[in-house]
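Q: Structure for this?
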Amino acid sequence: MLWLKLAYKEISNNFRFSLFFIINLSIGLIGFIALDSFKNSIDTHLTNNSRAILTADAQISGNAPLTEVEFTLADNIFNTDYEYSDQISFLSMVAGNDVSRMSQLIAIDASYPQYGEFVLQEGGILTDELRQQLFSSNSIWVAESLMLTLSLTIGDSIKIGAMDYTITDIIDIDPSSTISVMSNFPAVYMGLEQIQATGLIQFGSRINYSRFYKFIEDVNMDSWEDEFRQAELDILGDTRRISMTTHQERSEDLGRILAYMNDYLGLIALIALFLAGVGAAYLFRSFFTSRFKDMAILMCLGGTPKQAYLMTLIQIVLLGAISASIASVISFITMPVLPSLFENFLPRGFENQMELSSFVLALFLGTIGSVICCLPILSKIYDLHPIALFHEKIQPSKSLPHWQRHVMSYAPILIVFWSLAIWQSNSVMIGSLFIAAFLIAIFILGLVAWYILKFCGSFSNHSSVTQKLALRNLSRNRLGAISCFLAIGLGSLLINLIPQIEKGLQEEISQPDDFSVPDFFMFDIQPDQLAPLETILADYGHTLSFVSPQVRARMETINAGEVSAFEETPDEQMQRRRSVNLTYQDALKSSEELVAGEMWDGPWVFGSDELPGISLEQDFAERINVKVGDTISFDVQSVPITGRVMNLRTVDWNSFQPNFFISFQPGVLDPAPKTFIAAVSNVPEEQHLSIQNEIVETLPNISIINVGQLVASILDITNQISWGIKVMAYLAIFAGLVVLFSIARYEVKTRFWEINLLKILGANFKDVQRMIQIEFGILGFFAALVGVSMSLLISYAISWFIFDSIWSLSWGITIFSIFAISTLSVVTALVATRSVLKQKPLQLLRTD
Amino acid sequence: MLGKTLITLLLIASPLIQAQETFTVLFLGDSLIEGLGLETEQAFTSLVDERLKREGYGDITIVNAGISGSTSASALERMQWYVRSRPDLVILSLGANDGLRGLSVDNMKGNLAEAIEFAQSNNIQVALTGMLTPPNMGPEYTSSFAQVFPDLAAEYQLPFMPFLLLDVAAIPELNQADGIHPNIEGSRIVAEHVYQFLLPLLP
């Protein structure tokens, strides 16, 4: 109690200083809470969107009724409480008005859908009452396209299998309709209990049985599919295969982008944590150092180093707790209001939620963080002697304390931040790498700072008095200047890291310049069907785009050796069949980029001495261990054809264009049997059905997949992700600048004694300002330069480790960061100097 | 130089130069012929080939012309490609994908007929394998689908194997996880049936 009382007294005695400290720390922590809670909100928002598409968190399905063994298998992997919904679906011919169409029958139970909105044209949003109506009679709900194709109205009946069913409503919005290929057939919904009566489920029928899960708690679903596959193999063997899908994996493209986003947000959380950590550590340490005089007095009066430390520590913890509480209260009040202020910029349905964890972390950083950050200085207290009282400016001893004590004192910081990094990034590897990179950055920054400051000292001889003073200040007060340099440098590093990664991710997510949302993908177009297909489309004012020939072949040898590389890949299918789809093309598509070798100019000349050229997708080439110049032989439908790899290319899979791993120079495969893939873009919604029906009538084998809705929903989420990535980048810059602002401000305030002394000695206002300007200009500029340069290296490394080497230099942000940080340091320092200069030199004589 | 010889040989002359000396049987079909999910040696065509060699039919060449996912619409174009190699017997085995996708039965019949006529007009013998489509497609569709094959066989007087996947289809133990494609065991049974069907057609 006594210590608490003493600490309280100290704080109230130094009220203005304490207030200043609290304000600075609060600003830093508010930045942290904002960044952290926004990150959580974006995460939740995207997760909800992606759940709505699957209508669940996860799904298991198989082509035979699911058994208890399989449910237990899933239970063991989920390891959480859940609700579930069962579903049976299959394709069948549905007949009405003497016309029949292939449809997708979906039998649902009372829990469908678990996420997302299912809306009927008459009944509206699905309710229990509507479901009961569906279950209690021979009624069905039918997709509008089927109604139009079969010229049906509500109340009509259609024949499914052996039974007649009455259409009681038309499906308006079906959340699950966007993704699967099967969903391109019009949906017919009925009750799970009713589907047996169709008589269609019998020996030989191809039926899909699914269970959809909704988890009560948030759980980490990464790697579940692999785990499930393995467990399934172990228990059920190879004959029976059921599959598991989590909502993130529902769409491959989307899953990849969501995974990037997830890692990106993890990184943001780390950056927020470290920014707050750097700011808080700097403030705490400065505060602690400024209290050395008091400690010396205490020790002079007979206190032990332990008591001296305890008293200061209690002060710091108190101030930290107050700051964290203030930051929490302010955040708590302002955060929920923010979305309404930026309504136009936010995606639909976005809610800013605050997770308790953000506040707990802020409080933790504010209190425990202060203790661990000050431990290294504690180790110096043992070297503190009352004689320090007679020094004009009290600093901890420059001699290094006993090395063991020193190392020990830094260990808790390392351990705590390491653990926090792992927790925040949700990954041991990422968290550890981040810590390692951070330590290396500290070392390099410290080293650079040391030499720059040393150079400042030797350069000072050739300068004017003010410059000399400024440069010598930096050189003499090297330890203090280094800590300021470190703080600004690390801040710059963290600030620039996120925009740097953002640029690469944005480029990955964005579509090529000539991108237009495709509405239809068409497969299995026979060569003689291209012309009639073009004619049908021309009647509606459309053309085929991205027409690509597809030739089936088997990969036989690489460099005249057996294709053995496949044996090492985990891709079982590939290993087994070695069957590949080849294409041929004149030039690269807009979605492709050459990364090695050259593109052919013109077709391969029949009878040429050269082997025909092959272009491989980069990752595929890596997988089969092939480089430019290698030869690959194929069995193209009984004809062996050998080609030489002429180039490697990357493919932007987000382009929604038909893309191939292996492409041949034209002039080789042209006469081989082939089919074509093509896309049709910009088809107005009202034409969809008639175009589809006309093609089904005249060219029935052509598969038409209506991808418009799928692409639109992926694009919608992609755009939201892109938005989230950008906003987080700006927020990181802003939060970082706020932290740097508080550091610069604090640094000047601690120079108060020295500035006043200069005034007493007759220095004028301008000279002092100029001195501060030079000092902080040098510190800010060089720290920012080094920090930002390192951020480029680290962001490149991060991209390499986490984001499949997606990286792209963002010059604009880099130059802006250096400029903004230097300017901010100087301006903040100058503003702070003004307030110090305004005070009377008499202050100097006061103890405080 | 290698490329030149190779390609010239293959594109101009014929994919199957030895066809002139031996009796060539070409299986024109889909993934069931290709042996999707199996090693090359495990596809039933390879097993039949092996069996023939073992039984002393050294001068018979089996060609696997299966393309996964292909429908009857590709029959004519592919028949035109392979006729250049002058096979002696074409086993036409398309239609399974038409059935799975619920494509028009009349259309399928027309496609297959065109291919048969083209082969016959080039003096190439054609044999036909029948196919069934899963019962979930509905009774009308499944029955009219199944009827196409015997009708064609009768019309063009083709040797006819009523169901390629006899004793294999829909039996989980004999199929891969997808429930459609035979596994190694299934492939052996198909090979046995095909072998028996083929024997009387060989010289």
